[in-house]
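A common beginner's mistake is to predict each chain separately and then try to dock the pieces by hand. The better habit, illustrated here, is to supply every component at once so that their relative placement is modeled jointly.
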Amino acid sequence: MNKYLLLISIILFSCQEEITLDLPKADDKLVIEGSIENGFPPYVIITKNGGYFDPIDSETFNNLFVDDIESVEIWYNDNDGIKLDSVILEQITFFDSLPPIYTDIDYLTSLDENGVAPSLYDFSKSGRTYYLEIKWNDQIITSSTTIPEVTPLDCLWVEKSENSDEEYEYDIRGLYSDPADQDNYIIVKSKRVQHFAANPKDSLECFTANIPDGSLKIIDAGSDILINGQSFETYFPRPKDQGFPNGNYNAYHTKLCNESLIEGNLIAGDTLVFKEDIVLIKYCQIDEPSLKFWRGLVRQVGTNGNPFAEPLNLVSNINNGLGVFTGYGSVYYKVPIVDGTTIFSEYDPTILDIF
Amino acid sequence: MKKTISTIFVSLISIICLAQDKYTISGYVQDESSGENLIGVSIYDNKTFKGTASNQYGFYSLTIEEGDYTIIYSFIGFKSTTKNITLNKDIRLNISLDSDAIITEEVIVTGERLDKNVSSSNMSQAKIEVTNIKQLPAILGEVDIMKAAQLLPGIQSGGEGNSGLYVRGGGPDQNLILLDEAVVYNAAHLFGFFSVFNADAIKDINIIKGGMPAEYGGRLSSVLDITMKDGNNKKYEADGGIGLLSSRLTVQGPVQKNKSSFIVSGRRTYIDVLSKPFIPKEGAFSGSGYYFYDLTTKINYRISDNDRLYLSGYFGRDVFSFNNSDNGIGIEIPWGNATGSLRWNHLFNDKLFMNTSLIFSDYRFEFNIAQQDFELKIFSGINDWNTKVDFLYQPNQRHTIKFGTNYTYHEFTPGNASGRSGEVVFEADEIFKQYSNEGALYVSDDFEVTDALRVHAGLRYSSFQHSGYISFRDYIKNDFQSNDDNYRHIEPRISFRYRLTPSSSIKGAYTQNYQYIHLASTSSVSLPTDLWVPSSSEIKPKFADQYAIGYFKNLKDNMYETSIEGYYKEMTNLLEYKEGELPEDNTNSSSDGSFAFGNGDSYGIEVLLRKNKGKTTGWIGYTLSKTTRHFDEVNSGISFPAKYDRRHDLSITATHKLSKKWTLSSVFVYATGNAITLPSERYIIGENIYTEYTSRNGFRMDPYHRLDIGATYTPKRKKNYQSSWNFSIYNVYSRKNPYFIYLALETTDGEDGSIQDGNLTPKAYQVSIFPILPSVTWNFNF
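With all components supplied together, the output reads:
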């Protein structure tokens, strides 16, 4: 809605100026991004909140990291509500510039060099409800989530994009049959595990390179309120950093190296080869509280700047903190953008695919 | 029901019997030039000042002792008429007042009954003359009765350019907006910038912000009772105007001279036409645009001296379309109101007047979005069938008795969606609807107890029955016995006037109001997306208690009217979406579980100084008020200021008749800034930054103030036509009033920023929309 409201206000001679606001500082709270997914160990990323007008530079970003967490535990109960199995998550830092992750270190050390585990991670299963407890600064932060049953897509295929002028731009489409007897809350994410781009940053050479997406991004999150029990065709646009996802994927194509591609040491006339994108689609069932959070997150971008909207906070399922703890009943598909491709079978993900 | 009516009749007859030595003078008052019925004309004896006023249909009835009288008929903008009458029998006297005389004279002759402000038992009421409104400067030349109403104390606007009314701390859904008795559910065009009422077709506007009489109900805060013109029954006439934003045309004339007339009035904006050249045909946004139009029409027929028929209708639509060929998205959003009223006036005798109405009202909203093979349509609305019978009985000069009944059948379509993806169509098995019956019986008496004390006492018995999610027929068949969602309430309405001196009085009022239908809104102003929902077993009716007291004084032979009123209002069962709930969660189903309920209160002092006579007229209105809300489930249960909490609100309007040809006008407004919610903290999920809002409406925008000036030039009437030019300058000193504030993270070097790169800076921006805006409108009449 906000787009056209803004459009109208622009039509109506609007002008804007920067102002200084004196906003009150909020108390320190933990921000949780917790995940548990069928067949994979849970992980929790913990950061802190900041004041709205605190500057954002590398130093202040690191200030949001929390290094004095006492413990992070996840467990599930038996039918009588008695703790049946639990795992203590421990901190692991992959990059200094990213917040530390808490996960099952034993699982990580058991992986081979391809990221494949010797056996299935049996702790995380569809149908179970998991409890999270974090101890920090004499505070206890809790949450719970359920991994719903998995509902796979019937199939996916690659089709020439209708709203693109470029021959090589394609869409991924899919057929989904929604189970009629349950409420479904669906979140779909994707990332390009292979994506060729010309002239990578700071290079003056004329060449292409594989620059895959760093992590999964949300395409959309929603409930089956309108589609319950129906079998229908849908499509999975490429998510952008913000806003309505509407991107395409690239099939194999070539371009001539020219001035528009690089500056400096041209080798004009050389043919650049762009291999086809390979796209990982993560199709998940989540529970309702998680949906409310993720849907709100997709929308918060949409309501910022809408003059009429009551501001929406993300509806957290974390007690005494911010963020979300989500159980994903997920299936994965690996889709090469090659004309005529149809995928019926799921892809067996490794630990690197789930992020 | 039958019993109640027969009891009322018996008591009426007994009053008639007691009044044997008195006689009645009655009739209709109309405009000499057009035959329009005149509303609120003062009719009084020039010695005793005993009198009455004509009702909404121009009818008056005055019962006084036998004798010789000089009766004065006086109405603002018209030349007063005096009739010498020997009253020794009942007299029917239809009067025509001449307005032509005024135009040739420089000074407006007289107002209404001179001390009406002081002498009537009404308080917290106001009338605005359409001719007055038309002389005030208007934004882009668009004359707007709702914006004029906002200039009165106690009535606030929602913000820059917003035509919504916020009356004594009430929300926009708490106003009963009636157009020829039909409820208008969304009175705004262009997302609130303009009201749906075309001033050319409007005859009279009565605003009640407190002390609501018993004949009105179903809303907590106010009544805006708008009467359309009947149409000239003497000669054909066309009026129109060409403005920057829209053009208007009104045609009226007799169907059968002096017996029947019609009026048709239309208006359309041309933003879409004007903006078309700027949207390239080959460009991404080709096909995007916006327009609104409305059409008002009315026919009346005088069957006999005792019977008149009126048929009136309104139809308006806004259509917004947005196309972006870059991503293949097409959006179309049409919305609007339609109303129709069929009314029959009948005079049983000189003292008993009846109006029977059959009314239809419809509001609908649609949102259509399409991208590639995917289509989604969201639609909602409300549809009413309403019938009412109102009686006005004036047995003698001391009593004005009103009684009547009102029944409305509501059909709500709160939020439905259907869609299509390729060949597959998603549709609910049935469109989700809710049905309700709303009824009322009322009786009131405006009673002059002594010469000093006048009391207006009324009772309204209201009932509401939510008949569920099935049609009325099925309901009668299956569920009639179920009482789960039934509400019945008695609403006392009382006000009094105590005259201290001939030119001053004190007044007080106490009213109780129930409101059975609710506007569920995710925004702070009334938007077309808002849903009307009925009370049910989950949603209790809203309720308000209001106390008001005031001192009224006229100065310099009624040249100046002054008043000061204080009020206190308490509201319960106010409704908002729970945090995190969205209207779409209830697509095709009931939204009863989505709401949080809370209370509110508002108190304030309103001061009005008004000059009605002389070359310079106008008023100064000032309001000091405070409005808060309390919801257990909102803002962590802490009380917070309402969005439209306004500590200070000042309006000054002035119109000066410079010469026969030139009239000048100006408006100045000042208001405390709107209360808004801003984030106090932010956090990171994934690679994105999100904000957390902590204190609801905890931040104030800068105050709002603005000066507008206008001038109307009316050259000498040409042989066949009269024209006039209206020049307006809106926001003369180009004050950058805050419209909204938004926060953004900006990169320092203009490139894509990220948290890791540390190149983002949080910034706050204030957007102002209307700088200085001159406009000119050409109006004509022939």
